[in-house]
Structures are given as structure tokens and as C-alpha cells.
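Reopening closed ticket. The problem is back. First fold of the pair:
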Amino acid sequence: MSTLAAAAPTIALRDVVKRYASGTVALQGVSFEVGAREFVSLLGPSGCGKSTVLRLVAGLDAATSGHLASPALSSTSTCDTAFVFQDPTLMPWASVFDNVWLPLRLAGQSKTHAAVAVRRMLASVGLTNFEAAFPAELSGGMRMRTSIARALVTQPRVLLMDEPFAALDEITRQRLNADLLAWWQSNALAVLFVTHSVFEAVFLSQRVLVMGARPGRIVAEVIVDEPVPRTAEFRTSQRYAQICREVTRALEVASAADGLSA
């Protein structure tokens, strides 16, 4: 277990089981922690329960058994946890400004009162000149930036991200990876990030948790002990390639075990 997580766990799972009414066991004995300012990725094959873990941490679903602690489950504030989905889920009829204002509006803040926070966040994600634009007028990367701005505008303690860059081209994805690390550092967040990409997980994370399927469980943990911010040079370094190979091997072992149990 990482000392980063052990020092100040913001998210903690202990022997968590999720069983559906059909009898399907989605998660079996899942245990891990995420520290207050730690970036952790969940990596694994489709159907291994990565998104289920996020839903439990977000309080959108309940575990069948085990212990689970997160701000979404223990705080009276709905602003402590933010969730970014693969689809930006923006309101198509609303401007960029109004989309980012939404969580503050739901918390009771008027548009005038929220304007400073919204504009500060739009500047942070590079959308200062697009506050009056509508989602249909934006590129895929800009729509995702809007979604992330909406998530961060409440200054959450925890950011949960479910494959947010999967549908983007590689250049846009790499640019947003670098920007995400900057946003994470400047906002002092605990981030739990779901991805299918070994390369993305290694570039972003301090730890990569590899999940196996049938039922979902943590089968390996890989520490990425490289300083941040991480640059384009890191992607071409021997150390990056070495860690990617280590994570890939763990993923191959998990997939092979799943095939044997099928």
C-alpha cells in the first residue's frame, strides 16, 4: 500500500463486494485507498467493474458488503465529489458559461454571484473566449474541457473520471492529459481515474491499480514514482517504457486468469 494513500486516505475501500439482484458478482473483496492529493488510475479489461467502483465511491450505488468511505458518503455537501463521464453530458441548449454554472446554480448561487468562479475556471481550462458558445459549436476536446470546468468549479475534494478522453484523437488526448495533471496539482484533488489505456494510466498516475474480471478485484498495484508535472519527454523515456511494460504484464496476467475462469 502506498504511503501517500496511508498518510491521509480520502477514499477507502475494504473487502467491498457488489452483487446484483440477478446474482452476478460485479466486485469481490476490493480493497484500496486514495490519499488526499493522490492521483490513482483503475485499469482493466471491459466488464471488470472499474465503473462500478466509481459509482460506489460517488454514492450513486451501494455496496453489498464491506467498508467504503469517501466524501460523497460522509459529507453533507454535494460539492465535495465531482464526476466526469466519458460523454461530456452538457446541456445542448445552454451556453458554456451556463453549463459550468450549473452545479453552483443547483447549490443556490445566482448567475451574478457565481460569475467570478465560473470565469476563473473557464480561464483555467482555456475557454475564456467561449463562454457564450453552445456545445454544438465546440470540438470534442473543448466539450470535455467544459465538462471538467463544470466539475472543478465547486472546488471538490475528490474528482472521479470515467474514461473521459477515450473518444478523443490522440493529440487532443495527450494535451488534455498534461492539462489534467496541472489542474490536479493546482486544485489539490484526490483523483480516481478509470481508463483502458496503459499509456494514459502511466503518464497520469502516481499509482496504477490493475483489476481482474469475473468478479472484479484488484490484482496488481504499480507505483509510478516520477515527479510531476510530466512532460512530453517522459512519454519517450526509458523509465516510461519500463513502467508501461510492467503494467502491461500485470494486465496480461489478469486477462489470462480471467480466461481460465471463464
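Second fold of the pair, where the issue appears:
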Amino acid sequence: MLPVILTIAGSDNSAGAGAQADLKTISALGGYGVTAITCVVAEVPGKVSAIHPIPAEIVAEQVRLIFDAFPIAAIKTGMLHSSAIIERVVTVLDECDARKTPLVVDPVMVATSGDALLLADAVALYTELLFPRATLVTPNLDEVRVLIGKPVTNVAEMRDAGRELATRYGCAFLIKGGHLREEVSTDLLVTPDGEITEFTAPFIPGVSTHGTGCTMSAAVATGLGRGLGLHEAVGEAKQYVHRAIASSLRWEKGGRSTNALHHFAR
């Protein structure tokens, strides 16, 4: 049977990020995706025009029903948006006895467009409630800056930031370096014992997509749900995201180009 992977995330109507991207990723990598939707987001690549949060109790009820019906092999959290949703998600996961289920936390704070996706008062709850439960946290460099209070501008600083965060929260961190826009895209997996593993792929210029972070975290969760070890799951996810970018799709309309990841590229 396919492993069931739960994504607790926002809905992206353009389907390049959020729960829609997660479902495509999970399907492509051999899982069966189920969802708990936290927010409805009106967006296209490069623009977020509206965010409507789902009531926290409705988010929790989605999670509760999914756990009642399915053997959940792994969980991924994406856009949680508010302190109320974060608190309720943590509570319901405890109610569902999910502490032993692999949990990948994508701390969605800022969209690729620069739009804020997390209310300011919710950052502390991420670090207090979710990070200590996580198997892996997957921040991009903008999110790392928020978490450590200073910018990260090179791979050496990524190493230092990863060690600081993994030690502080007692879980593994995948520091994603794509925003450096260097010839080689480097991600660093840092474990609480200080071990650092590099995962690299050629940087692909000229492609403007969104949803790479959602896709990466969903891919890692799917690998863990299939029984892969953490390092193997991250390595598979890195190559999967690289293929999705390299084979990205493009549409032209009204003088505007719209790009999207190709989640089913081979």
C-alpha cells in the first residue's frame, strides 16, 4: 500500500505552492497525499493578493478525521499563518498520538514574492511548540534571518546558522541556499550532534517559479514516510526539486510569462 502523507498547509489557487504542490509531490514520489487546509490564499507566481485563514478548530477537525481514517506515515506542515492555528495544530497532533510520526516543518514566513505569510506574533510559537517536535525543519535564508536575527550571505554562514539552530532546538535543520543564486545551489543538513551534510545541484538561472520550499519539504516527508533515512530522504528531495525546476513549465498571456515547477518531470 502507498504510505499516507499528511500535509497541513495553505491552499494556493495557482497550484504551484501550498497543499496543491504538496499533493503533486507526494504523488510523484510514491505516496498518497491527504490534507488539512489552514488558509485559502489568492495568489499567482510573484503576487499574493489575499489570505483567508480557516478557523483553527476546522483545521484541527480535518487533522482529527484524517488520523481516524488513515495510517499516517509522515506529516508535513507548511503555511500555518497564525498563533491560533499553530497552537491548535500542536494540540490536535498530541490528541492523535502523533509524536512518533516523522514531522517535517517548513516554517513558511515569506512568499517568494516578498509577501508576509506568517503573522508576527506567531514566530515565537513556531520555535516554542513545533520545532522541538520536528524531525526536520527546512528554512530558506529569509526564514533563517528571522530565526537567528541576522542575514546569512554565504555557505560558511549557513553552516554557523545551522549549528546554532540545531543545537538550540534539538532537531535537524535543512538550511536551503538557493537564494544565494550561486552557480551551485547548496543545501546543508545539520543534525543536533553537529554533523553537516552538503546536498548540491547546479543553479538554474532564468527560471522564476514559486513553491520550491513547499515541494522540498513535502518530498522529504514522503521519503521518510516510505521508510528512507533522513539523509537519503533529503538527497532524493534535492534531486527531485532540481528536476522540477530544470523542466519548469511556462505560459504566456497578455505580455506576462508565468512559470511553474514541473512536479512530474522525469
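Update: turned out to be a display glitch only; the data is intact. The CA atoms of residues 83 and 125 lie 6 Å apart. DSSP finds eight helices and eleven strands in the chain. Please close again.
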